[in-house]
């Protein structure tokens, strides 16, 4: 397969970036998208040029590190996958592929296609945890009964890998789906209910302070989420937030 | 409590509440307007009641005006904040892959509706205010002793260009409601087993109400 890649190149956070065109040949449909970029980088290194910087780690769709905006969509044209799970068979010989970093002011570009998603970490620090006594008096989690429905919903929310595709796909750069998943995964379980009020208030406050946009319910985040996190979690967070605000 | 509406969740909640109020108002407005197709007398009676009953005039009307202004101002505030959240846009952005045109362009459909409201107020609301509160004539009667409401309505829809503008605005209203109806429920946290049915109802509402207004405008133009 012969392709034309149009890749965002940016030396560092302080310089302006631009799209640079790279022709590439000999790409097999069974290769992953990141393997294709590996081949491009080998070519660039052999030519003495700077390789394209991009985030990746597990390459199994688990870690949430890969974060490319491919042909106008986060994680590319396939659904329910991360960039590392995208295969080149999704493209045709002769295609032009635009590859850009996830865009949001809260995700500043560090270099080329690598963005700083530590804003997600700070939101987690604001409330994405439960406080448990670990000084020898830990209660077995299984000692507290949890009904099946709540457990399933909490686990579904917990599948969020924090990749940021929700923010990247949203026309408003809203992080509501991520925050809603993180709020819900604790709030649905008895261990998380103790701090539920403070959690939702603090996490939403931090989200707003990071400069993410407001949700306008376009549903793009749900469509592009590699783990299929539902908009129902945003509705749940909205309810919890308003109830917590009235209490607090 | 005071900080609720300074938060992103609180702002969308407030936006949804104003949307619910405006959507209920639309049904009431349509219900009265459609009477004009069936009976001039009943339309006149209903219009006179709405135009002179103190609860409508001094309680509901100010709330409605506040609701309209709030909805548009909050919409603009949200739009500005959202644009500021992404200073550098994508070179290639395929919004159609994951969302509807209506959901991504609420600010534009809303702006067209706002412009239409200017025309609508010029046509109907300002003359009402002039007659009732400046001239002090609360009778609602013409010189010939008949109510003026039906005559005023028919007179306004004589011009083809005005009818065309009204019809165009109602198309934009439909586009706005096609996303806005279900979006308002999502914003107040109502997403459950009834959501699928509610979306269907919302689509029907978003098409039937504007289509009904178009029908009324065309009916009076051709009659």
From TrEMBL, chain A:
GO terms for molecular function: 2 iron, 2 sulfur cluster binding; electron transfer activity. InterPro entries: 2Fe-2S_ferredoxin-like_sf, 2Fe2S_fd_BS, 4Fe4S_Fe-S-bd, Beta-grasp_dom_sf, Helical_ferredxn, SDH/FRD_Iron-Sulfur, Succ_DH/fum_Rdtase_N. PROSITE patterns: 2FE2S_FER_1 (PS00197), 4FE4S_FER_2 (PS51379). GO terms for biological process: aerobic respiration; respiratory electron transport chain. Residues 151-181 form the 4Fe-4S ferredoxin-type domain. Signal peptide: none annotated. This is Succinate dehydrogenase/fumarate reductase iron-sulfur subunit. Belongs to the succinate dehydrogenase/fumarate reductase iron-sulfur protein family. PANTHER family: SUCCINATE DEHYDROGENASE, SUCCINATE DEHYDROGENASE IRON-SULFUR PROTEIN. Its cofactor is [2Fe-2S] cluster; [3Fe-4S] cluster. It holds the Pfam family Fer2_3.
Automatic annotation (TrEMBL), chain B:
CDD domains: SQR_TypeB_2_TM. Keywords: Membrane, Transmembrane, Transmembrane helix. GO terms for cellular component: membrane. InterPro entries: Cytochrome_b-558, SQR/QFR_C/D. The chain crosses the membrane at residues 55-78, 106-125, 163-181, 202-222. NCBIfam families: sdhC_b558_fam (TIGR02046). This is Succinate dehydrogenase cytochrome b subunit.
